[in-house]
Write a structure and sequence with these properties.
The chain is mostly beta strands and about 70 residues long. It contains one helix and four strands, in the order E-E-E-E-H. It is about 5% helix and about 30% strand.
Length: about 70
């Protein structure tokens, strides 16, 4: 889970999301492999976009993060 940050919310349903990042710190690597999904199973219009996975320095840098992360618009 991402710590030291505000909770991650889904734009589709306002549900809480979890984020897990695994990193290989060898050579000062700052890019991690991420997985983001709902904490609990929910009916959400963005379910087809989750889990959001990929490699990025930050969860907010993941491709598609701007469509999924944040309060509903």
């Amino acid at each position: 889970m991402v710590t030291g940050h505000r909770p991650l919310l889904c734009r589709g349903c306002a549900g809480n999301l979890y984020a897990v990042c695994t990193m290989d710190h060898a050579g000062g690597n700052t890019v991690g492999q991420w997985e983001v999904d709902h904490e609990l199973p929910v009916s959400c219009p963005l379910s087809g976009l989750l889990p959001l996975t990929g490699t990025a320095a930050s969860v907010h840098d993941l491709p598609g993060a701007e469509e999924v992360l944040g309060p509903p618009v």
